[in-house]
Amino acid sequence: MRTLLAACCVTLLQPGFAAAQGAGPSGSDTLFVDVGSTRLDGRVFRPHAARVRVYVDGELTNEWTNELTLADSAGRPVMQWVTRTVRSPTGVTNVLRQTYDAVTLAPYTFHSASSNGAEIDLMLSGTEVRGTRRAANDTTVHEVGLTIDRAGFFEGASDLVPVAAGLEERLVMVAPVWRYGMSAAEDRVFTVVGDTALVVEGTPVMAWRVDEHRRDDRSLVASWYLTEERPYMVYGEVPLPDGRVRRMTEVEIPLGRE
Predict the structure, then answer these.
(1) What sign for the dihedral angle of Cα 45, 102, 131, 182?
(2) What global pTM score does this model have?
């Protein structure tokens, strides 16, 4: 099979194993990973910057940059991610800053500030979430204080989890994810389908296809194409409720460009 996505600058070549139908955990082949698990090792991620472009129906709809730096916080190694949206369908720009444990990927801080005045500033410790929020075009700052049922990995960075766990053919892993606004963490099932040769914006890449499903209803969340080298996620497909597909390309850019 050869699929050409000219608008996205992606060519898929020599696809690996077909996606498992109704992907889900099965016996000893399944790895269960919780926040803080020693099975994860985020030290595979090295400082870098990358540009992500998002296409729907062949049209560029969104673009942002990711920048990763490593640091030390109170004696523990942390990774600091800065995401800057430079193009969006609404015209609103945003800067998102996140801090994770550099080994376990446990989330510590989340700060999102948009050009329309919306802002969320959170600190996380296990199941405790504390901070503030302000709606768009509003001056009122609200306190945030909640306890979730269990710690979860940030949903917007779920593709980091299988890379930190180790990409192995046919590996299935289950991990909880959470985002602000969710009342409880949600189990996601990640299935390493196989390796695929891609050409992403003119550059040949070998990547592992990893399908992410919700565990409760087995619905497909995304198909990620991941590597163990920068920028780690090189291509992604996210099904939309209306049947269309959001397609993402990611390429490395010079660190400190933004």
Answers:
(1) positive
(2) 0.89
| Residue that has been written with the tokens 């129906």 in this structure | 57
Residue 41: phi and psi, rounded to 5, are -140, 95
Convert the pLDDT of each residue in 126-138 to its tens digit: 999 999 999 999 9
Please answer whether residues 233 and 250 qualify as being in contact, where contact means their C-beta atoms are separated by less than 8 angstroms.
yes
Give the separation between CA 251 and CA 199, rounded to whole angstroms: 11
81-114 pLDDT per residue, tens: 999 998 888 899 999 999 999 999 999 999 999 9
What are the residue ranges spanned by the domains of the chain? 3-253
The amino acid at 68? L
Q: 200 exposed, middle or buried (CB, 10 Å; 0-12, 13-18, 19+)?
A: buried
Cβ distance 48 to 255 under 8 Å?
Answer: yes
**Encoded tokens for 107:** 């989330």
Given a contact cutoff of 8 angstroms between Cβ atoms, the answer to whether 163 and 44 are in contact is: yes
